[in-house]
Task: inverse folding
């Protein structure tokens, strides 16, 4: 989780990712941010998040995103 | 059958009567029949094209669903007998087969779209190459039928099949219900590009007559007619004069033309969408909004989140994301990080995918280099803005301008001007001419035309300008009011006489001040051609 928070924090230092739960609904993250995050996750976690997983419920909070990473790791 | 023709109003009246008189369980069937009549009226041959898209997409969707059900049932039965690796391999095999169905459906339908829309564009480019290398002879153009709204209904159907493949919607079992989703007549010719998951919530439901919903729908239709007939069609004469006679109207005329076109396009397209959403609302059906006051945007990126929203989100979900996160792109990103550094490596997927999206957006709008240049122009401006963002932030922090009214106005005017400049590609017949006309704004030195009465010689009279100015002020006032909630709700809370004056007044304005041509039929909607 720490690693993921670092990725997110680097992108938007002014956002409290531990608390925020509406990153997509409140338009804090846009499509460019999502691609940067996925690219970083692929690099650091060796997990590929495919287009079908790009849904608001997976990206609305750091916790949900971490859950998705874990789920994809388990599937592998 | 134009939305603005008397025949369409008769058609709508009969439909609404049948829709509410017949048993509610027949409502979606009545709508399907009406959509078929609407499309058949345009041309019987068009029905063949749309039927192919409907049937092939529906069939592929059913096949994908069947494969998935079969896989789930097999895995349930063999839960104890298969190892983790065997299950994984079986799932991958099924996924591959569902992908083959999806890909075949996409290739067939996008292939039809490509052939009918782009064959002559390809031929014209081949001929240019033949001429450039000095060879003789050229290919003949093909007399191609371009079915009404093919770009819209194809995208809607392709969005559905991708959603079924991704498992975000269940495949529709009933081919006739699916046919209604693809051919729903109010949105057939200029969108919005609805998602199956959204539209099905209300499209197939039974809708008892609700006075408030019905009257709100009619009000939205009336507002759409106001935008289309009073503003768009009135300013159209001036826009056509300025654009079609480029040799005469250069310099400051180009500036005037691009602003007039910005107003015309907004009134025409949002007016058409108001009519679409209003018609659906009179029948209790909710269609996704396509605009959120786009001309109030602070930058182009925001503008594209507020203009033609359903097209933008279609390109983002079905082209931008899949390209950006596909394995080859991630590999390229890794390669770029290792060889050119972190900063460039991170940008590679975003920039390349955006390039593809904007190229596709351009060519989707029309088969010409003008539209491609327009799309890539948007891409360039967005990317440059993205790169300059840290610099903007420094400037905003240093001068404390964020949130200030004056700066906000500056951002809005800047966005409108930038978008208008890019739309010049849409106005002039070819790319070199567009650049010449743009350049003439800075070299012709004829800004005196703004006040010496020359603008009265472009087909618009003083009365036209007065009506357009009042219309523009009304558009701005309504947009400002919308920021605090539904304007129709606000009007509904007024006393009876207030409501009566406003709506009856608007009706009279449309009737008396609408620009009606020969036979009292209005002009085609601009987005019909896409």
Result:
């Amino acid at each position: 989780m720490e690693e993921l928070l670092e990725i997110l924090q680097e992108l938007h230092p002014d956002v409290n990712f531990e608390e925020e739960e509406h990153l997509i609904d409140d338009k804090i993250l846009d499509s460019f941010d999502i691609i940067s995050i996925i690219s970083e996750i692929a690099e650091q976690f060796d997990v590929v998040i495919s287009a079908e997983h790009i849904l608001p419920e997976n990206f609305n909070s750091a916790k949900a995103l971490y859950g998705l990473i874990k789920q994809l790791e388990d599937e592998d | 059958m134009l939305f603005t023709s008397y025949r369409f109003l008769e058609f709508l009246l009969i439909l609404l009567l049948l829709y509410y008189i017949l048993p509610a369980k027949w409502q979606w069937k009545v709508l399907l029949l009406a959509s078929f009549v609407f499309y058949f009226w345009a041309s019987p041959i068009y029905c063949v094209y749309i039927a192919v898209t409907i049937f092939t997409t529906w069939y592929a969707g059913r096949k994908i669903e069947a494969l998935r059900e079969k896989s789930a049932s097999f895995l349930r039965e063999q839960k104890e007998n298969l190892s983790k690796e065997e299950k994984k391999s079986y799932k991958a095999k099924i996924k591959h087969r569902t992908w083959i169905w999806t890909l075949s459906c996409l290739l067939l339908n996008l292939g039809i779209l490509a052939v009918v829309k782009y064959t002559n564009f390809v031929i014209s480019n081949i001929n240019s190459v033949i001429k450039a290398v000095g060879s003789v002879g050229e290919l003949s153009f093909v007399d191609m039928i371009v079915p009404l709204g093919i770009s819209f209904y194809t995208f809607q159907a392709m969005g559905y099949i991708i959603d079924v493949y991704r498992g975000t919607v269940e495949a529709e079992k009933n081919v006739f219900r699916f046919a209604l989703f693809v051919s729903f007549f109010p949105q057939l010719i200029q969108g919005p590009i609805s998602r199956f998951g959204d539209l099905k919530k209300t499209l197939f439901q039974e809708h008892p007559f609700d006075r408030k919903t019905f009257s709100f729908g009619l009000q939205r239709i009336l507002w759409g007619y106001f935008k289309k007939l009073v503003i768009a069609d009135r300013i159209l004469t001036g826009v056509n004069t300025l654009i079609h006679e480029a040799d005469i109207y250069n310099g400051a005329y180009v500036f005037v033309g691009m602003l007039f076109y910005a107003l015309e396009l907004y009134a025409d397209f949002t007016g058409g969408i108001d009519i679409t959403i209003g018609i659906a609302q009179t029948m209790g059906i909710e269609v996704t909004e396509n605009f959120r006051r786009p001309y109030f945007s602070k930058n182009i990126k925001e503008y594209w989140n507020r203009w033609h929203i359903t097209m933008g989100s279609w390109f983002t979900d079905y082209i931008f994301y899949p390209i950006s996160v596909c394995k080859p792109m991630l590999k390229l990103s890794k390669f770029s990080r290792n060889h050119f550094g972190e900063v460039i490596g991170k940008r590679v997927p975003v920039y390349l995918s955006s390039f593809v999206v904007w190229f596709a957006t351009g060519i989707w709008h029309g088969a010409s280099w003008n539209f491609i240049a327009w799309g890539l122009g948007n891409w360039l401006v967005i990317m440059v803005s993205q790169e300059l963002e840290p610099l903007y932030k420094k400037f905003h922090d240093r001068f404390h301008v964020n949130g200030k009214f004056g700066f906000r106005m500056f951002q809005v005017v800047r966005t409108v001007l930038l978008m208008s400049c890019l739309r010049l590609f849409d106005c002039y017949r070819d790319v070199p001419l567009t650049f010449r006309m743009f350049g003439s704004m800075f070299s012709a030195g004829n800004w005196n035309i703004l006040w010496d009465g020359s603008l009265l010689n472009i087909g618009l009279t003083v009365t036209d300008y007065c009506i357009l100015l009042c219309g523009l002020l009304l558009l701005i006032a309504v947009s400002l009011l919308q920021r605090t909630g539904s304007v129709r709700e606000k009007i509904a809370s007024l006393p009876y006489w207030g409501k009566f004056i406003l709506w009856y007044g608007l009706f009279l304005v449309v009737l008396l001040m609408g620009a009606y041509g020969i036979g009292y039929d209005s002009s085609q909607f601009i987005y019909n051609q896409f």
In short: Chain A touches chain B at residues 27, 30-32, 34-36, 38-40, 42-43, 48-52, 54-55 (CB under 8 Å).
